[in-house]
Amino acid sequence: MKGSQEKLDRFPCTSCGLCCKSITGIIELIGFDAGNGVCKFLDLKT
To answer: How many C-beta atoms surround the C-beta of residue 39 within 10 A?
Structure first.
C-alpha cells in the first residue's frame, strides 16, 4: 500500500497547470491545497 500512497503524494503535472490553480472544495485534494486553493506542488514561477 505504501507504493500507491507515494504516487498520490505528488501529482506529476505535465501540462499548463490550470486545473491545479482551483482545487478548493475538492475533498480528494484537500491534502494538496496550499491554503489558497492552489495545489502546493504547482510551480507558479515556471
So the answer is: 19
In a 10 Å sphere around its CB, with 0-12 CB exposed, 13-18 middle and 19+ buried, how is residue 33 labelled? middle
Amino acid at 30: I
pLDDT in tens, 7-38: 555 666 677 778 889 999 999 999 999 999 99
For the chain, what are the domain ranges? 1-46
Residue type (1 letter), 45: K
Cα distances (angstroms) measured from residue 30 to each of 20, 27, 45:
12, 5, 22
